[in-house]
Amino acid sequence: MDWIRTWNTFQAYCDLLLRRTRPRAYPLELSLGTGSYCNLRCIMCPREDHEGNRMPFNQPVRTDYFRRLAPYLRRANEVSLYGLGEPFLDRDYFKKVEFIRSFGTEVILSTNGVLMDEERRRDILRTGLRGLGISLDAVTEETYSIIRPPGGFNRIVENLKALVALRNERHSQRPLIALSFAMMRQNLHEVPAFPELVKSIGADEAIIHTSLYMSHAMKERIEPDTELQRKAVVKTIENARKLNVKVTYWNLDPMTYLRSLEYTGAESVPQQAGASYYCHHLWRNAMLQGEGELFPCCYMTNHRVGTLAEGDLRVLRRKPFMAELRQLHFEGRIPGPCRNCPQLIPYNRGQLVREAWSEIRSAWKHPRSRETDNQRGETPVGDAPVAGCSGQDTNSGPVNAL
User: Fold this and answer.
1) Across the chain, what does the average pLDDT equal?
2) What is the pTM of this model?
3) Which contacts (CB < 8 Å, 24+ apart) does range 198-204 have?
């Protein structure tokens, strides 16, 4: 039995069911950066071109910092352990994974795969990562080198096949491996062949999605023709179904980030009369980059809410900017940056009650680590009793037309 995690999960659902704009629960998911250096120069990355992005660049994240996060890790169900950089450039990456896993918390990794050598592949299996994501954005070395210079496509594919073989050898279902493809003008012609590549590697899922524009200049460089992109999506999904490859399509609004630059808090768009919504991320996730810098979400990175140096994470999540966003969603008045976001979900109290029952039961049964909080040096926080971006699964639904 896991009293602390169960209580926090209960509080989180109370926050949503009672429509609290200032949550009492700690986040159920954390998005944590682990250093912001990179070995590639991707043409759609904010590291290469952005307007107003405030996420930290080229900054190490010390292992000691993670010990300060112990009270939050103790209550979270899942951690996405990556940020604006390549995780495998961090020599202590798997030490951080082990520390997080010691709380019984799941970990998800996203990497470009270039540095995923034999030792790291074995570490991935050893530490029990729940999920692994790699963005390929191509099916050939030539196109990959254009999108993600200086390249390394063939090496990544071989690394992935070796990881799948090792996972199969150990008869393990972890990690689930998802390969993604961000559509741009430069690679649109290769999207329909992506499911075949995913199948040949032995990965579990193919994800195709639109690209976010981090600057107006980037938009001019990579924006594809809308109709060609729509046809490419339809063809890709057809091919995936023929090959029996699970495919998910994220129809992200490419202008989300640029709209966030103009958002002041006053502008909102009414949706269907009487409709109410909530943001999955604002409700259950906290995005901490660098050493404790909180951002509203992975799309609104021009606005830094605050830092852990100012105080407790729950206090930061209650700040006026965050509370206002939640209130607008509940009222059905959607801010410009949130309009077409896949994290925006219609508010259905009955559905939420069913989800709450399922997740609270799961948290209750969650095994606790044998290591005590005192051994970790954890200081209890908050009012708990002392004892983490989603898309459309096109295998089960219609194509979300662009």
Assistant:
1) 87
2) 0.86
3) 198/245, 199/243, 199/244, 199/245, 201/157, 201/160, 201/161, 201/164, 201/177, 202/160, 202/161, 202/164, 202/165, 202/168, 202/177, 203/160, 203/164, 203/177, 203/178, 203/179, 204/176, 204/177, 204/178, 204/246
